[in-house]
Structures are given as structure tokens and as C-alpha cells.
UniProtKB/TrEMBL annotation:
EC identifiers of the protein: 2.1.1.63
Function, in words: Involved in the cellular defense against the biological effects of O6-methylguanine (O6-MeG) and O4-methylthymine (O4-MeT) in DNA. Repairs the methylated nucleobase in DNA by stoichiometrically transferring the methyl group to a cysteine residue in the enzyme. This is a suicide reaction: the enzyme is irreversibly inactivated.
Family designation: Belongs to the MGMT family.
Name the UniProt record assigns to this protein: Methylated-DNA--protein-cysteine methyltransferase
Ranges annotated as spanning the membrane: none
Main location class: cytoplasm
Localization: Cytoplasm
Chain ranges of the Methylguanine DNA methyltransferase ribonuclease-like domain: 14-86
Note: This enzyme catalyzes only one turnover and therefore is not strictly catalytic. According to one definition, an enzyme is a biocatalyst that acts repeatedly and over many reaction cycles.
Biological source species: Streptomyces silvensis
Gene Ontology MF term list: methylated-DNA-[protein]-cysteine S-methyltransferase activity
Lineage: Bacteria, Bacillati, Actinomycetota, Actinomycetes, Kitasatosporales
Length: 176
């Protein structure tokens, strides 16, 4: 993934929804002078997602702000895109969570890793694997920041905020 992070000054958030094979996705963003289409993604969530974003008062619906992102999502779900080029706005989260979220970006399309392997790659102790799992569960950018590629040490599907059925569908799409 080639996502980059911005700290755009604009505080008004824009949002839209796009249809996908996983259901309607809610995209939330912030204006950015450097992002394709002018919008840096703050959140991508889906219906029924544990801890997913919900449209708030003060947010502005702007379907055109997400045209470039929606095109990439369509291409991904069609099997024609394996690497997103989306700018992310630095959102909420602790330093530890952001460190874990950035590590997810290094898990290649079509592969999986385990929670333990990801923790080891970050230099975390075995005792920190649970905290790593909690941070992954709070990933605000489902699909584009590939937390679905993290599985249990025994190969089982565990812990996906969008639901295990959707995790399986994403991994099947990627043939992982």
C-alpha cells in the first residue's frame, strides 16, 4: 500500500457512501491539497462494524470529494487493483495504535500475517500481542488499511471489526 498521511488544517469533515460487495461503505475525509481528488481519508467503515464511524452533525455530504477513492475501491473489488494510492488524514488514535496501523500497510496484497509475526516485526513482546490486536480492531480504515490480512497463529480467522464473513470475503478476493 502506498498510503501517505497528512495533517490537513481543515476541521470540517466530508462524507459519502459507496456501494460495495461488502455493503454500503461510509467514507469520511478532510480536504487536502496533496491528495488525489483533494480529499484525505479519515475513515472507511461498513454497516454493523464494531466501533465504525457514524455521520455526525457538522459533517458535509460531498460525493465528488471521494471520486478518486471510490474508483480505486471499485477497481479493488473487481480484482484489478492490488495497491491503494490513497492519502490518509492523521486521525484519532494513540501513538501505539498509529504505529500498528502503519505496520498493516506493509502486509502485501494476497498474503496474510499473524498477530505474533506483526508484533515481532514491530519489536513488541509476546505479552503485547493482545494490545496489538486491540489496536488492529480499532483501525479506522477498513479494506484500504488491510487489517483483514492478519490471522491467528493457527491460520484461523479472528477479530475483524467488519465481521468474520467479510474478512473471509476480502481474503478470498485477494486469494490469500
Amino acid at each position: 500500500m502506498t498510503g501517505t498521511t497528512t495533517t490537513a488544517a481543515r476541521t470540517t469533515l466530508v462524507h459519502t457512501t459507496v456501494e460495495s460487495p461488502l455493503g454500503e461503505l461510509l467514507l469520511v475525509g478532510r480536504a487536502s491539497d496533496t491528495a488525489p481528488g483533494g480529499t484525505a481519508l479519515v475513515s472507511l467503515s461498513m454497516p454493523g462494524q464494531k466501533g465504525g464511524a457514524v455521520v455526525q452533525g457538522g459533517w458535509v455530504r460531498d460525493d465528488t470529494a471521494f471520486t478518486a477513492i471510490a474508483r480505486q475501491l471499485d477497481a479493488y473489488f473487481a480484482g484489478a487493483l492490488t495497491d491503494f494510492a490513497i492519502e490518509y488524514a492523521e486521525g484519532a488514535g494513540t501513538d501505539f495504535q498509529r504505529k500498528v496501523w502503519h505496520a498493516l500497510d506493509s502486509v502485501p496484497y494476497g498474503t496474510t500475517t499473524t498477530y505474533g509475526q506483526l508484533a515481532a516485526g514491530l519489536g513488541l513482546s509476546r505479552a503485547a500481542v493482545r494490545a496489538l490486536g486491540t489496536a488492529i480492531g480499532r483501525n479506522p480504515l477498513l479494506v484500504v488499511r488491510p487489517c483483514h490480512r492478519v490471522i491467528g497463529a493457527d491460520g484461523s480467522l479472528t477479530g475483524y471489526a467488519g465481521g468474520l464473513d467479510r474478512k473471509r470475503r476480502l481474503l478470498d478476493l485477494e486469494s490469500a
